Amino acid sequence: MSFRIALRFVSLSGRILDLMLAREISYAVSTELVEEYREVLKHPKFGFDAASVDSLVDGLAAGAELVVPYPQRDVISNNPKDQFVIDLACAANAYITTGNAKHFVGYERTVSPAEALDLLRN
After folding, report:
1. Distance (Å, rounded) from C-alpha 76 to C-alpha 74?
2. pTM of the model
3. How far apart are alpha carbons 37 and 59 in whole angstroms?
4. Mean model confidence pLDDT for the chain
5. What is the pLDDT of residues 57-75, one digit of tens each?
6. Residue 57, Cα to own-chain centre: how many angstroms?
7. Is the separation of the CB atoms in 3 and 48 below 8 Å?
């Protein structure tokens, strides 16, 4: 199953992914975030083959601004495993778009996929 077909079921995230892959929006990644995407998407529960995951993640990385995050002292994630995402967002002066906002409650620019699409429209 391709990622685009799979994400059509989650249409808002799928729209954002399409915009990213078409390079119609700017976004930032770090090496750590790219590797997390790769690791998570290769988990057997998703059923994606490794070559498709690598192709997607490489495509996303190629269209992104690569940012070197720096540790934050003022904004701390309530999930220590996700702190690197806040560090990246602060370094890039970017929004965090997630369906799991509870891990980023300390970061004021955390938005859902629906909110991200609204921001892009305005």
Report:
1. 6
2. 0.85
3. 12
4. 88
5. 999 999 999 999 998 888 8
6. 11
7. yes
